[in-house]
């Protein structure tokens, strides 16, 4: 099968998990004997056959842009004329059996309608809320989660719905029930939505439960308010579990807050700093800086429990599945897709999002009886073999519509 993937970003240009997933998918498809081409928004890389010019700026540079350029980006993200011609040329040149779009921010709704106009089977994966929110996350610029849809986003949603309605993707995959449910309001998506969870790489053998009186908790992700980092720091301090530690991996606007609660690694948190290189503070908080590659495995080996304290409708944190696949219990916020991804055995560790007191209670609950919350291997999340099987079904169904 010839598969054309659409993804705004492509490694090495990475902002989040969606583009990493798409790149991993490309390799898995090739390993399974399929041919893969990729169209991106100005991101060169392996298997990329065409790039939509990243005007007015590359997505990964959004944080440093002035308001005037951000406004222009939002305008082009409603209608990008470059996408139409470049994607059409790529489809004609590659002759795909199916187009599979992922995050298409910057390429506009044209990326979701051109395959249908050309009568090419089309599958779209919902990794975020781009179809509903101009910031893709339903999070405000100050880092707080939205509680209602603002007028600007409602207007853009209405425009995109009109654009897509006549040539919508044949199958729409949500990475969780929660993200799919948010998109049920889109009239064109009715009857096309289904769930296909994010897979994880095959991990090492799940480790045995450790008898720990002073557990090591871990957080891995962007250091931002909507991720619940501030709530976690407050809750950990209030829990006051003698001898326990909190390893915090990641970068973001709250880095200085994490560092003031703990200590950066010697040398100011270099990229790829290993957990073992962090300097603990008197409060037990350790700021690790960016954690990835081999250092991610070190991180998982060192922690006893992962904490996912999101304060937004987090679609499906891949780090949660990575922890479950290693037999690491997860304390998670009742937000987005987190509750459905938590192991049933650890469901008692769920807590109301933004509730620092409740999170402190869950930290103490785990510390009192860690073995009670560890899932057996059969509860591990979806592997790549199962994911590809579900994807092939979606590809075939798209061609049959």
Automatic annotation (TrEMBL):
For bias kind Low complexity, which ranges apply? 261-282
- Which Pfam families does the entry mention? Glyco_trans_1_4 (PF13692), Glyco_transf_4 (PF13439)
Q: Identify the stretch(es) annotated as Disordered.
A: 261-287
Give the signal peptide, or none: none
Q: Name one GO molecular function term.
A: glycosyltransferase activity
> Where in this chain does the record put each Glycosyltransferase subfamily 4-like N-terminal domain?
16-201
Q: Which InterPro entries match?
A: Glyco_trans_4-like_N, Glycosyltransferase_grp1
Q: Which PANTHER family match?
A: SULFOQUINOVOSYL TRANSFERASE SQD2 (PTHR45947), TRANSFERASE (PTHR45947:SF13)
What is the name of this protein? Unannotated protein
Per the UniProt record, the source organism is freshwater metagenome
């Amino acid at each position: 099968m010839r598969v054309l993937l659409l993804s705004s970003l492509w490694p090495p240009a990475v902002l989040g998990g969606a583009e990493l997933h798409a790149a991993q998918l490309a390799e898995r498809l090739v390993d399974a004997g399929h041919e893969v081409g990729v169209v991106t928004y100005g991101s060169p890389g392996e298997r990329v056959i065409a790039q939509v010019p990243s005007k007015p700026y590359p997505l990964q540079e959004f944080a440093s842009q002035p308001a005037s350029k951000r406004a222009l980006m939002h305008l082009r993200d409603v209608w990008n004329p470059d996408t139409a011609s470049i994607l059409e040329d790529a489809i004609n040149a590659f002759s795909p059996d199916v187009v599979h779009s992922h995050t298409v921010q910057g390429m506009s709704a044209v990326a979701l309608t051109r395959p249908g106009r050309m009568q090419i089977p089309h599958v779209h994966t919902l990794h975020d809320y781009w179809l509903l929110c101009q910031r893709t996350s339903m999070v405000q610029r100050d880092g707080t989660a939205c509680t209602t849809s603002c007028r600007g986003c409602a207007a853009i949603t209405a425009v995109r719905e009109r654009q897509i309605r006549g040539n919508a993707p044949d199958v729409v995959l949500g990475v969780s029930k929660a993200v799919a449910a948010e998109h049920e309001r889109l009239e064109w998506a009715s009857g096309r939505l289904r769930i296909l969870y994010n897979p994880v790489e095959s991990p090492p053998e799940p480790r045995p439960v450790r008898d720990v009186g002073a557990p090591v908790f871990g957080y891995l992700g962007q250091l931002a308010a909507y991720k619940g980092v501030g709530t976690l720091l407050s809750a950990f301090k209030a829990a006051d579990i003698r001898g326990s530690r909190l390893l915090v991996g990641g970068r973001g606007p709250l880095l200085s807050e994490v560092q003031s609660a703990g200590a950066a690694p010697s040398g100011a948190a270099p990229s790829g700093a290993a957990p073992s290189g962090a300097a603990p503070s008197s409060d037990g908080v350790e700021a690790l800086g960016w954690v990835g590659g081999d250092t991610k495995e070190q991180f998982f080996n060192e922690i006893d429990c992962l904490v996912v304290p999101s304060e937004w409708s987090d679609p499906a944190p891949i780090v949660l599945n990575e922890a479950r696949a290693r037999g690491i219990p997860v304390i998670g916020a009742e937000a987005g897709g987190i509750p459905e991804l938590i192991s049933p055995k650890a469901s008692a560790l769920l807590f109301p999002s933004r509730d620092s007191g409740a999170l402190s209670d869950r930290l103490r609950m785990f510390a009192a009886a860690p073995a009670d919350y560890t899932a057996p291997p059969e509860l591990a999340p979806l592997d790549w073999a199962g994911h590809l099987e579900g994807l092939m079904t979606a590809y075939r169904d798209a061609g049959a519509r």
